[in-house]
Amino acid sequence: TVAIDGYSSSGKSTMARRLAGATGYRYIDSGAMYRAVTLYALDHGMISATGEVDAEALAAALPSIRIDFAPATEAGGQQHTLLNGTDVETEIRRLRVSNAVSPVAAIPAVRRALTEIQQAMGREGGIVMDGRDIGTTVFPHAELKIFVNASAETRARRRFKEMMETGAQVSYEDVLANVVRRDHIDETRAESPLRKADDALELDNSTMTLAEQDAWLMEQFEKRVQA
Ligand code: DC
């Protein structure tokens, strides 16, 4: 079991996806699950215009929210998140969802439900999961734990570039503000806050190339998982 945690847009998912591709492990993006629940809440009127979440209504609806992952259709491609059978991969990456997800992810009932599903997915091992609390809460006994970091500006630049490539109409300032706001909510929530597990390896990839990052990852994987 490999747990990769870190701040938003730190490159966790790229890292997790590439490691899974290189090792044949299954990749699970736990953030996509929080995003899918947020999309459900938005579409069912459970989030007010000011961003207030009706936590009780959402907790009651959890049993009727099913999240699955469809494998990528092309080699090395992105897997797709399904919400009650509908492909919502593009929709959950929009700023509408990014702006609403942190308060949803702070609701204890949501965290408990998603943690249970994630633990069930990892029961057999052979999994790389990325998120915020994978090394601390979901898989505290993972063989390899990595905590990824990069400055808020570096992360906002990456997210902005990604969003521009998908044709989104956003400003860099809005993206940076969203990154900073989410960091704060994720770090200060009462249940499973974003925190480096004591036994996680810390990686700041601000100035690393993808090739350097891949080499570092494989070295850690061979040392801790294959040894
Ligand atoms: O990694 P991401 O940006 O797609 O995550 C979306 C949100 O979900 C983020 O604000 C924090 C939350 N999250 C969480 O609380 N726990 C996880 N394991 C993964 C994501």
Structural class: alpha/beta
In total, the number of strands is 8
Cofactors and ligands present? Answer: 2'-deoxycytidine-5'-monophosphate
What sequence of helices (H) and strands (E) makes up the elements? EHEHHEEEHHEHEHHEH
Strand content: 5-15%
The separation of the N and C termini measures 13 Å
Percent of residues in helices comes to: 40-55%
Q: pLDDT average, as an integer? A: 92
The outline comes out as globular
> Could you list the spans in which at least 5 consecutive residues all have pLDDT below 50?
none
Rounded radius of gyration (Å): 17 Å
> What is the strand arrangement across the widest sheet?
2-6-1-7-8
Annotation field: number of helices: 9
Main beta sheet: 5 strands, parallel
How does this model look, in words?
The mean pLDDT is 92. The protein is 48% helix and 15% strand. Strand 4 and strand 5 form a beta hairpin. It has 227 residues and is of the alpha/beta class. The protein has nine helices and eight strands. The strands form two sheets. A five-stranded parallel sheet has the order 2-6-1-7-8. It has a three-stranded antiparallel sheet with strand order 3-4-5, covered by helices on one side. The structure holds 2'-deoxycytidine-5'-monophosphate (DC). The site of 2'-deoxycytidine-5'-monophosphate has 14 residues, from helix 2, helix 4 and helix 8. 2'-deoxycytidine-5'-monophosphate binds next to helix 2, helix 4 and helix 8.
